[in-house]
Amino acid sequence: MGSQPVHGLPFLPGSSCRDPTKTAFHRSQTLNYKNGFAIKHLPTVGIGRERLHVNQLSQAELDELSNKRPTLTYGQPKQAPPSDFIPAHVAFDKKVLKFNGYFQEDVPVSTEEHFRVRQVDLYYYLEDDSMSVMEPMVENSGIPQGKFIKRQRLPKNDRGDHFHWKDLNRGINITIYGKTFRIVDCDAFTQTFLESQGIELNPPEKMIFDPYTELRKMPLRMYVTPSDFDQLKQFLTFDKQVLRFYAIWDDTENMFGECRRFIIHYYLADDTVEVRECHERNNGRDPFPVLIRRQRLPKATVEKKETFPTCVLEISDQEVLEWFTAKDFAVGKSTTLLGRSFFLYDCDEFTRQFYRGKFGIDDFQPVDVKKPPLEEVKQVIPPYNGYGFVEDSLQNCFSLIPKAPQKNVIKMLQNDRKVLRFAVSMESPNPEDRKRRFILSYCLATDMISIYEPPMRNSGIIAGKYLGKTRVPKPGSSTDSPVYYEPADLTIGATVEVFSHRFVITDADLYVLNYMESNPESFPAAVVQSMRDHFAPRQAAAEAIKRLDQSKPDPQELDTVVAQTQEHLQRHNYLFDSSMQATFLQQDKDGSGLLDKVEFLALCDHFKVPVDDPLFQKVEFGQLKLFTKSFHYQ
């Protein structure tokens, strides 16, 4: 059907057609605004921008309607004469639009300012569309100010156009003769005029001030009425009269702070204060006596700005609201002087009299500022860990580099190479351990005990050193105060517990008895007597054997010696069996009852008979018949 729509067809299904080239389907606006008022607007195009031919009047009809007046009863009215023409210089006479703005210019030759902000007023004269720029006067600016651009029509661009009041608004930049001006606000008349002409004004902006000019503004002068106080009279009255306070400065809250003592002098002649430090011996500080030199100290000052150069300028009298006086010092109170808090704990007698007569104060009780002694921390000894001796391990708790514990050198020299030997047997629930025999040695020089196990043939136990030299504590003693075994504790039949192993003393060396008899003050009398009773049968047998060597033995005496020898062997828990008797009889081939020395020692060694006992050593081996009979138990 082409791109043109077909008109005149009935609006029925199948008869309507649609233009595929049409893309716009919106309706035209029928309401418009002029000078801020809503007016009705008849659209000339319909939906899709199609031209409306209905109710459209030609230009001639519109002109006729505009000039036609309604017909009145008495005829056509007279047409009003046109209004008089008023020129623009008359209509807009003395009507000026005023805008506030500023521009920024660089200052390349100054080290104190890099740029300068200059405020201006832009004037637009409606009568001839001319403009002028005025700069208000600023006091002590040093810049020629006033008329910046004289009144004229200002060019807008290079095409010959000029600025119009429609080009001006708030919050915009305009460039005039190479300088860019920022318009920030306008007056009320300008705002009303522009809004009446349908111009929507931007929101106003804040005026920017020159930072260097603000910095140079001098503070207002403050005039202080001079006081009528007679300083000369004060000087003559209180000359050489000084109040003395004793104070401390506690700075322990800060790092490396200390508690230091000071003396504060208050001079009544001119109300000055001096702080002197009390140095102590070997305090490690330089010997400077004065902490704060004599001067008037401010108590309250005006609030200073952050830019106030405190490090190079002192506080003047105009910045001090109140100075320290004598009433600001009191015993038992703290006073802050130049940022340091001093606690006044005492004063001298002259100061007490002055405050008593001047202010009526009688409370001058001194404050004890001595710090209590540090609480002594009790040294807790850790438990014994089982390595080494208790005395050696204890030295690790006393110093970083442990020292060897002191030894009794005199005791070591007197008892050098003196050893007490005892024969012991193990007390154990195991039958095999009960048969084991040991030799316990007690070193008198160091009070150490060692245990040695002699070799036993076919016992299945490796003989040798059972316990090295060490100090053995008694059962029940603690590691804090251990109690060790002493020679007085080692008696025949006594039980010695060595590190959870129990040993029973069965015999002792003859040197033990001799040592006890030579040192009776070191042993109880009962211990010495028990040791004598133990060695009495052995000594009696030795004396009997000695008598037998000197004379022919009597059978009765021979039986007595045999009985003593058997008793001595039984006391040492030595048990005989039938094989021992059979072996001795078998070795005596001629039946004489006598054995050779070598044969006798071999048999004794075979049956573990203690041939090294002094009782055997004192007997001549030619009389071995006596000992042979001693082993014949009926």
Share in β-strands? 15-25%
Any idea what the radius of gyration is?
66 Å
What is the CATH domain class of the largest domain?
Mainly Beta
Number of domains: 6
| Main sheet: strand order | 6-5-4-3-8-7
Between the first and last Cα atoms, what is the distance in angstroms?
Answer: 160 Å
Return the CATH topology of the largest domain. PH-domain like
Q: What is the percent of helical residues?
A: 10-25%
Ranges with pLDDT <50 over ≥5 residues? 618-634
Helical stretch count? 16
Shape call? elongated
Architecture of the largest domain in CATH?
Roll
Protein name: EF-hand domain-containing protein 1
Organism: Sphaerodactylus townsendi
Question: If you had to describe this structure to a student in words, what would you say it looks like?
Answer:
The chain has 634 residues and is α+β, with helices and mostly antiparallel strands. The protein folds into six domains: 31-67, no CATH class; 94-215, Roll (PH-domain like), CATH 2.30.29; 231-358, PH-domain like (Roll), CATH 2.30.29.170; 378-406, no CATH class; 408-523, PH-domain like, CATH 2.30.29; 530-630, no CATH class. It is 23% helix and 23% strand. It has helices at 59-67, 88-91, 188-196, 211-215, 231-238, 349-358, 390-395, 409-414, 431-434, 510-518, 525-550, 555-571, 578-587, 597-606, 614-617, 624-630; strands at 31-34, 37-40, 96-106, 115-125, 130-135, 146-152, 172-176, 179-186, 242-250, 259-267, 272-277, 290-295, 298-301, 320-323, 334-337, 340-347, 419-427, 437-443, 448-453, 464-470, 495-498, 501-508. A six-stranded antiparallel sheet has the order 6-5-4-3-8-7, with helices on one face. Strands 12-11-10-9-16-15 form a six-stranded antiparallel sheet, with helices on one face. Strands 20-19-18-17-22-21 form a six-stranded antiparallel sheet. Strand 7 (172-176) and strand 8 form a beta hairpin. The model is unreliable at 618-634 (pLDDT under 50).
